[in-house]
Design goal:
The chain has 298 residues and is an alpha/beta fold. It has twelve helices and nine strands. The chain is globular and about 55 Å long.
């Protein structure tokens, strides 16, 4: 039994095993010989909105022989203040695994500890490990290995998605450039923990020059809505658009974890010109998460 709580804590060998199995899951979709979740019921416990993560886990659990049970945190006693550790102990006695999207990373960790069932982080304020695994699968499909490549993240460089990217950089040996205003750059402590080849800069053009991948995420993450106006003002200009793409390597991938806000972190023309990659990326959530589920019960 295993947990996927963060990219930080995921061993490189496990990451490589999941990524290799994701290729098989994709190739053999609808023809799986084994049903590793047969007879199991998995909770999908969500405290925040979701389209991709919810759908891909509901479909993924089902395709591996299990039954997904979607639980909005607001609809169970957790939403009325029942402690995580009590919710976890109840679920641990009735369910076989849990996929948990919430705010604090410590809540997912506490859930895993008290439930004793495989627990998967479906996004916290700190990390979005499933997203980064799908992104790496997409890059490997389109560019071959990610080792030695340059990935440039543009926008809010301190939110969950770039932080998971930071922890992947050292494990898989690529260069990560984070182009953000100073106050949206990751902390020195995080950079030290990630210990990879990571450059943080306010110089968007320098960060994009020669990049193999340009990547962005929303300027206003879930839970940060009260800061909307100040974030939009501060991040203005940190956008992937046609002139930025021209600075990257010819044929560079443009990626977005979605949902996208056109005119903010990406312009409409650039988004649509790269829709094939962006929606392959979204589709790969299903394949890589099936590999995660299989790994988690092994
Ligand atoms: N990218 C992502 O996690 O999308 P959702 O918030 O729709 O699940
Ligand atoms: N950083 C974004 C990711 C959405 C998938 C958020 O947390 O809202």
């Amino acid at each position: 039994m295993k947990n996927l709580l963060s990219i930080e804590k995921l061993a490189r060998a496990d990451m490589e095993r999941i990524l290799a199995d994701a290729v098989v899951m994709k190739r053999e979709r609808n023809r799986h010989k084994s049903q590793p979740l047969a007879g199991q019921t998995w909770a999908l416990l969500f405290s925040k909105s979701s389209t991709r993560t919810r759908i891909s886990f509901e479909v993924g659990v089902t395709e591996l022989g299990g039954r997904p049970m979607f639980l909005s945190a607001a609809d169970i006693q957790l939403g009325r203040g029942e402690p995580i550790k009590d919710t976890a102990r109840v679920m641990g006695r009735m369910l076989h695994g849990a996929v948990f999207r919430t705010y604090a990373q410590s809540d997912v960790e506490e859930f895993a500890k008290y439930s004793g069932i495989p627990t998967i982080n479906a996004l916290t304020d700190a990390e979005h490990p499933c997203q980064i695994l799908a992104d790496i699968q997409t890059i490997q499909e389109k560019l071959g290995s990610i080792a030695g490549k340059v990935v440039t993240f543009v926008g809010d460089g301190a939110c969950n998605v770039p932080v998971s990217w930071m922890f992947a950089a050292a494990k898989l040996g690529f260069e990560l450039r984070i182009a953000s205003p100073k106050r949206f750059q990751p902390s020195a402590a995080l950079l030290k923990r990630a210990n990879g080849q990571i450059i943080c800069t306010e110089d968007l053009k320098a960060a994009a020059r020669g990049a193999d991948v340009l990547y962005t995420d929303v300027w206003v993450s879930m839970g940060k809505e009260a800061e909307s106006a100040t974030r939009i003002k501060a991040l203005k200009g940190y956008q992937i658009n046609q002139s930025l793409v021209k600075l990257a390597k010819p044929g560079a991938l443009v990626m977005h974890c979605l949902p996208a806000y056109r005119g903010k972190e990406i312009d409409d023309a650039t988004f649509e010109a790269n829709a094939q990659t962006i929606f392959d990326q979204a589709e790969n959530r299903l394949h890589v998460q099936k590999a995660v589920l299989k790994w988690a019960v092994s």
